[in-house]
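User: I'm putting together notes for a lab meeting next week and I want to include a structural view of one of the chains we've been expressing. I don't have a solved structure, so I'd like a prediction I can at least talk through. The sequence is below, exactly as it appears in our construct file.
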Amino acid sequence: MNAKAAQAALLAELEQLLDVAESAQDAAGTVELDQTRVGRLSRMDAMQAQQISKEANRRRQLKITRIRQALVRIEHGEYGECLECGEMISAGRLEVDPSTPWCIKCADHQ
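Assistant: Thanks for the context. Below is the predicted structure for the 110-residue chain, given as structure tokens.
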């Protein structure tokens, strides 16, 4: 994948992730503690859903950070170079995940 195509794919994915992040903010909010309105099991379900939402948000933020870092590497002409060993990342790997910062060998050590 060339840098221009990668940049377009990364920008599209970033926009999508930012839209999802904006719409998902309410799901990670504080769980209602008033048990007169919500039964214990319903509250436990709500707390579990809140934790799932928080983890999804954490992963989404990590992906957003990786995409932004990849866009910076594109700007500096360093896109496709492994951050660990400096070797070129295989085109197939970049096709699957254009934001990956490591070659397959170095990714195993992360």
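A couple of points you could mention at the meeting. Helices lie at 3-23, 40-75, 91-96, 104-107. The CA atoms of residues 16 and 96 lie 17 Å apart.

User: Perfect, that's what I needed.
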